[in-house]
Automatic annotation (TrEMBL):
It holds the Pfam family DUF2582. It comes from the Bacteria. This is Winged helix-turn-helix domain-containing protein.
Length: 68
């Protein structure tokens, strides 16, 4: 079960993605003022929910545009 701060961070990441459409992990770390470990856990939850795509080559996350 997610804690309240993780839910807050995931909501903030979703807000950033809505605004930017794609964003680097580095930019997320600079923008969200929570410990980096918590931000990475929140990104992990979003990946597990299968709502975002992580481009390993460029270290960018973005919303998935289609689902299988």
């Amino acid at each position: 079960m997610k804690s309240d701060s993780i839910e807050t961070i995931t909501a903030e990441i979703k807000r950033l993605l809505y605004k930017e459409n794609r964003i680097s992990i580095n930019d997320i770390m600079k923008t969200i003022h929570y410990p980096h470990e918590m931000v990475l856990i929140a990104i992990g939850y979003l990946l597990r929910e299968d709502s975002i795509y992580f481009n390993e080559q460029y270290m960018i996350i973005e919303y998935k545009t289609f689902y299988f």
